[in-house]
Amino acid sequence: MKKIINKIVLLLLVLISISASYKSIAATTATVSLKSNKEIIEKGEEVEISINITGQKTASYLANLYFDDTKLEFISGPENINVDKNNIKILWYDEQGGSGARLGELDKIVFKAKDNGIANLVISGEFYTDKAQLIQTKFESIQLQVGREETALEIQAKEEIGDNRETNNANLEQFRVNIEGIIPEFKSDIYQYDLTVSNDINDIEVLAIPENPNAQIEVMGNIRIKTRAKYNKN
């Protein structure tokens, strides 16, 4: 009977030990994020991306950084780096046995902008404490704006300005009379002209075509002379 009791006690001790170990590992959490030294970069310009860890020191890690190689070109990084197309692998461990564990900025990588648009950079990997415990890690990636693109609000504003200009446009595309001698010479933004005619002229034919098809034209002049006006090209 004693042997059975001893086995049960041993089993309970093992379960408690495992449970305590799991809680210790679960409490080891951190956030690994990417940060850029510039919000917007122009084509041909270089940008510096840093890898950062907060919440827990790391004594060794293997980080994978994926970048959009249609928008960005890798320029330089730390010595412990391997670049394969759009994937950058960084391997590091603390040679001091834990006393040199890192917190904050881990590495910096320099890119050059190749083409305009949005460039995505995604970070992942495995990070360990000085006790060789795997850190439960939350990863935060970023997007870079290469070249300044018009926002939807800016485009809308330009369209509205264009519409207003069209609506308020009262310029003339053409203005002619069937008698020579109008003063001044025709200009699209001039609306008043003088014309001297002999006493035997009883009517004048006027052609007036606005730039804005929605504009209305009214021809006024000497009441003793009839004005026959045309307001379109037809």
Helix content range: 10-25%
Question: Main beta sheet, described?
Answer: 6 strands, mixed
Indicate the radius of gyration in whole angstroms.
39 Å
Sequence of secondary-structure elements:
HEEEEEEEEEEEHEEE
Q: What is the structural class?
A: alpha+beta
Query: Major sheet: order of its strands?
Result: 2-11-9-4-7-6
DSSP strand content: 35-45%
- Low-pLDDT runs: 1-26
Task: Write up this protein.
The protein has 234 residues and is an alpha+beta fold. It is built from two helices and 14 strands. The protein has helices at residues 2-26, 152-168; strands at 29-36, 40-41, 46-58, 60-67, 72-76, 81-84, 87-93, 102-113, 117-128, 136-140, 142-146, 172-177, 203-210, 226-230. A six-stranded mixed beta sheet has the order 2-11-9-4-7-6, with no helix packed on it. Strand 6 (81-84) and strand 7 (87-93) form a beta hairpin. The longest helix has 25 residues, at 2-26. It is rod-shaped. The model is unreliable at 1-26 (pLDDT under 50).
